[in-house]
Amino acid sequence: MARANPLWGAPRIHGELLKLGYDVHERTISEIIKRLRPRKPPSQTWRTFLKNHMFNTYAVDLFKVPTARFQVLYVLVIIRHETRQVMHFNVTRHPTGMWSAQQIVEACPYDTLPKYLLRDRDGIYNKYFQSRIQNMGINEVKTAPKSPWQNPYIERLIGSIRRDCINAMIILNEAHLRYILTEYLAYYHEGRTHLVLGKETPGGRSVSEKPDNGKVVAFPRLGGLHHRYEWKDAA
Q1: What are phi and psi of 209, to 5 degrees?
Q2: Does residue 225 form part of some domain?
Q3: Domain check: are 73 and 23 in the same one?
Q4: CA-to-CA distance for 63 and 160, rounded, in angstroms?
Q5: Is 154 within the bounds of a domain?
Q6: What's the pLDDT score for residue 46?
Q7: In contact, 125 and 98? CB cutoff 8 Å
Q8: CA neighbours within 13 Å on the CB side: how many for 86?
Q9: Are 43 and 57 a contacting pair, CB within 8 Å?
Q10: For residue 226, what is the enclosing H or E element?
């Protein structure tokens, strides 16, 4: 797993092994990885997490992605704090307040409206955006200027998207980026184990049962950039 997934650290591999039914200490995996990888992988960012004291809170943020033709695309993501699920994302070349407000509407059907929406002070969240959110009955919570650590869960998500996906690929255009993010978020929800969720996935993932004559099989994700492991009958 360490050789096939060079971007993975001990917590991610430990999560996969737990899903295969192996009860092994994470520190043991860390020591094995040190022997397999001569160089120490770069330290992860956003290690310190703030505990979530708000019930039913969503967070929203926008980040840039350059393409192979030097265009700049904007990705807006909305995450649910409680489960770390990405409720919605979209890509555009020209983000506006009206467009951003529409993304909130699509992410939050009226029967599942959050109580709070955590965001930064980007100019895209203009008066139209604020009015639309207020009319939906959602309370906006703004972070302090230049304080991304006050919105840690979505910053962590964006960091994971960059490290696990975008930084290892060449983005061609808007359609290509949307496809790549769709594939990654499917893996993020169904296959990728999360440290903060106790090595569980946001969508829930059962432990793979070992057959009598079984072997561990790797299922590639994102063209082999990541893998999901399960027991399969060797016969």
Answers
A1: -80, 140
A2: yes
A3: no
A4: 13
A5: yes
A6: 30
A7: no
A8: 24
A9: no
A10: strand 226-233
Does one domain contain both 114 and 164?
Answer: yes
How far is it, in rounded angstroms, from Cα 227 to Cα 217? 10
- pLDDT per position as a tens digit, 25-72: 999 999 888 887 665 544 433 333 345 445 678 999 999 999 999 999
Quickly tell me which residue has 């096939």 as its tokens. Answer: 4
Residues 6+ apart with CB under 8 A from 37: 2, 6
Specify the number of domains making up the chain. 2
d(C-alpha 161, C-alpha 100), whole Å = 20
Write down the pTM of the prediction.
0.74
Instruction: With CA atoms as reference, report the closest residue to 217 among 205, 208, 235, 229.
Output: 229
- Locate 129 and state its tokens: 């955006």
Please give the full DSSP string across 38-85, using - where no structure is assigned: SSPPPPPS--------SSSEEEEEEEEEE-TTS-EEEEEEEEETTT--
Question: Which residues make Cβ contacts (< 8 Å) with residue 8, sequence separation at least 6?
Answer: 1, 2, 226
| Cα atoms in the 13 Å half-sphere on the side-chain side of 231 | 15
Reading the block at residue 140, the tokens are 């906006």
Q: How far is Cα 107 from Cα 112, in angstroms, rounded to an integer?
A: 9
Give the range among 15-29, 49-63, 70-84, 89-103 with minimum mean pLDDT: 49-63
In a shared domain, residues 70 and 130: yes
Tell me what pLDDT residue 171 has: 96
Residues 170-210: tens digit of each pLDDT: 999 999 999 999 999 999 999 888 887 888 888 888 888 88
For residues 95 and 133, state if they share a domain. Answer: yes
At 1 the pLDDT is: 87
